[in-house]
Amino acid sequence: MSKQLNIIVACGSGVATSTVAVDAVKKILESAGIPAKISKCTLGELEGKQQNFDLVLTTANYKKTLTVPHMSVFGLISGVNVDLVKNKLLQLCQEIISKA
Q1: CB 50 within 8 A of CB 8
Q2: In angstroms, rounded to a whole number, what is the distance separating the alpha carbons of residues 80 and 98?
Q3: pLDDT value of residue 100
Q4: 16, 61, 77, 90 — which has fewest CB within 10 A?
Q5: Residue 31 and residue 11: Cα distance in Å, rounded?
Q6: Tens digit of pLDDT at every position of the chain (100 positions)
Q7: What are the Cα distances from residue 9, in Å, to 36, 66, 78, 90?
Q8: Sheet holding 55-58, edge to edge
Q9: Is 48 left (phi over 0), alpha (psi -120 to 50) or beta?
Q10: Is 14 helix (H, G, I), strand (E, B) or coil?
Q11: Max intra-chain CA distance, the chain
Q12: What's the Cα-to-Cα distance from 100 to each of 21, 33, 48, 85, rounded to whole Å?
């Protein structure tokens, strides 16, 4: 079994879109056989929490510098370019696992 990824999903309130995104990301990773623990927070909390995670996912634009890999998963919420977001997510997760 591969390394379990520790992922955090952030949105404006830490409740609404991050919950939808967490559900979508769980399904995508489970279907690909990638084990992950997924947490959520607000965008404001992200800078202080990022160091505890392998990957940061956001549902909104985030312009601050992060020290861990980051990508937007807004497409999983909006339904726009879902396959592109899914493929990018899986590729990023595989890269992180291969470096571990």
Answers
A1: yes
A2: 29
A3: 75
A4: 61
A5: 24
A6: 468 999 999 998 877 899 999 999 999 999 999 999 999 999 999 999 999 999 999 998 888 989 999 999 999 999 999 999 999 999 999 999 998 7
A7: 12, 13, 16, 15
A8: 36-42, 5-11, 55-58, 70-72
A9: alpha
A10: coil
A11: 34
A12: 25, 17, 23, 23
pTM, two decimals, is 0.93
DSSP code at position 2: P
Q: Who's near 71: CB < 8 A, 6+ residues apart? A: 55, 56, 57, 58, 85, 88, 89, 92
Quick one: pLDDT at residue 1?
44
Q: For residue 26, which amino acid is it?
A: K
In three-state secondary structure terms, 5 is: strand
